[in-house]
Amino acid sequence: MSSDPRAVLTRPAPAPDVTVAYGPHLDQVADLRRPTGAGPAQRLVIVVHGGFWRAEYDRRHTAPLATALARLGYPVAQIEYRRTGQPGGGWPGTMADILTGVSELPRLTAEAFPGAMAAGPPILIGHSAGGQLALYAAATLPAVVGEVLALAPVANLAEAYRLDLDTGAVAALLGGGPTEVPDRYTACDPRSLPPSKSRTVVMHGVLDQQVPITMSREFVAARRATGGNVHLLELTNCEHFGLIDPESTAWPEVVLALRSLTGTSPVS
């Protein structure tokens, strides 16, 4: 295992079994991986990658995670979406792509892998900016999304703007700050959205330097105060990228959290 936590971003992984399109744009696609683990069929897991919504980061850096999940028996879809720095990316294209993709991928995956997927709504796993997108999808599509595993999510866009995370990433996504485009923040900021009906686990490393853990603490506290079914798991010796790295010491905790969402393990 590399001592550089960012090594997972460029680590080679097997090619997906198939790539499907959920729209006409080149980035309105998803890589599908057939489950290879033993045991009963599992529901679809949709992986929403991070990268602060920027074009230079795409779904390929979650290939090691997706491969590991498929080996655990989950059918996996790595969704791609239009990102800032490319035509159609940012507001509202990025949000629209996530909603369309999450809605279409259960059908597309079932068609690609007949009999390999259990019935039921998909589980969303979102990392970093992908965590924001997963939380947004769950709140916006309550009848479509099952559970959510949010890994170091950007769970407060207004605060991320104030902190200037990744040097203007939120302003690039939404076209300005909360006082300039307040309706856009209201529409997609996890802290502004109505409580999701989806059972949600938020995981965050205490050593995270990209997205402060205080963001997850405050988000979960606010949701629990309104009766939300959301749990926070803090990992003491974990930074930002260990949560998506199957070779990290955090990975067994990620797997345990995922299984808790499918009812096979408890969440404390």
Automatic annotation (TrEMBL):
SUPFAM superfamilies: alpha/beta-Hydrolases. Residues 31-220 form the BD-FAE-like domain. The keyword Cell division does not apply. Transmembrane segments: none annotated. Keywords: Hydrolase. GO terms for molecular function: hydrolase activity. The keyword Hydrolase applies. Gene3D superfamilies: alpha/beta hydrolase (3.40.50.1820). This is BD-FAE-like domain-containing protein.
